[in-house]
Design a protein that fits this description.
alpha+beta
């Protein structure tokens, strides 16, 4: 039973990550902001400003994080997990898969560049 839940959870999480990448305007803007070091990935599965954000970056950040939060909640409900558990797994995967040069917050809360 536990293996089935984990497998379903992993499939759901991969589907969510695919959705993040399939929204072209947001994906392009997010990729650009990550590449420029304006935003970085966090261990909770959300993006955060690395530097003082402009209004446009703040709007992008809020939009991306709202979509991620809704997706994480959906996955959590479907798999009988807490959203925090889904956030932690998603955060680890997003950081692991982030391209070289992407900023991420380490476990101590300090920004590092891959």
């Amino acid at each position: 039973m536990a293996a089935s839940v984990i497998r379903n959870f992993s499939i759901s999480l991969l589907a969510v990550l695919a959705v993040f990448l399939s929204v072209p305007a947001h994906a392009d803007a997010l990729d650009d902001a990550l590449r420029k070091g304006l935003l970085g990935e966090t261990s909770r599965g959300y993006v955060a400003p690395v530097k003082q954000p402009s209004a446009a970056i703040t709007q992008l950040l809020n939009s991306i994080n709202a979509r991620r939060r809704a997706a994480y909640q959906n996955i959590a409900q479907r798999n009988g997990l807490t959203r925090q558990k889904v956030e932690a797994v998603a955060g680890a995967r997003v950081i692991q898969r982030a391209p070289k040069g992407t900023y991420y917050k380490n476990s101590g809360g300090t920004w590092q560049r891959k």
